[in-house]
């Protein structure tokens, strides 16, 4: 499937709870990611609707912000090169980034964002994002 144009600057991994601090080289996979065989990622435009669909009842979430160019180069969670491949694949309501064969961790996560839900997720993403690391 074709990647969006222009390519996003960042991709986001949504977490229902705070990741370990400090961030390890490799975060454990969610049950969904393990079962599907890849890490689910969203662009900034996709994140609010993904939150509405899968995290509607949550009052806060955590986002791992990852530079797209870092994942596209195959930089793994431990910072090593040549691991992982981003594939853009159709999923329900759009084309989403999926990371195959790689991990997320301190070597490729740009920062951690805490988002408290106030109003809609779209409003919360716009006005209520706190950088943690």
From TrEMBL:
One Pfam family cited in the UniProt record for this chain: DUF952
Domain of life: Eukaryota
Coiled coil: none
Protein name: DUF952 domain-containing protein
């Amino acid at each position: 499937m074709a990647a969006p144009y222009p390519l996003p600057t960042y991709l986001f991994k949504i977490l229902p709870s705070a990741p370990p601090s400090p961030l390890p080289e490799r975060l454990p996979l969610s049950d969904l990611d393990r079962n599907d065989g890849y890490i689910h990622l969203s662009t900034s435009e996709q994140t609010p609707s993904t939150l509405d669909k899968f995290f509607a009842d949550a009052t806060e979430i955590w986002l791992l912000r990852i530079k797209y160019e870092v994942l596209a180069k195959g930089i793994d969670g431990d910072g090593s090169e040549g691991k992982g491949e981003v594939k853009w694949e159709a999923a329900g309501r759009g084309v989403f980034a999926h990371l195959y064969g790689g991990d997320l961790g301190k070597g490729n996560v740009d920062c951690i964002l805490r988002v408290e839900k106030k109003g809609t997720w779209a409003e919360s993403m716009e006005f209520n994002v706190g950088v943690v690391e």
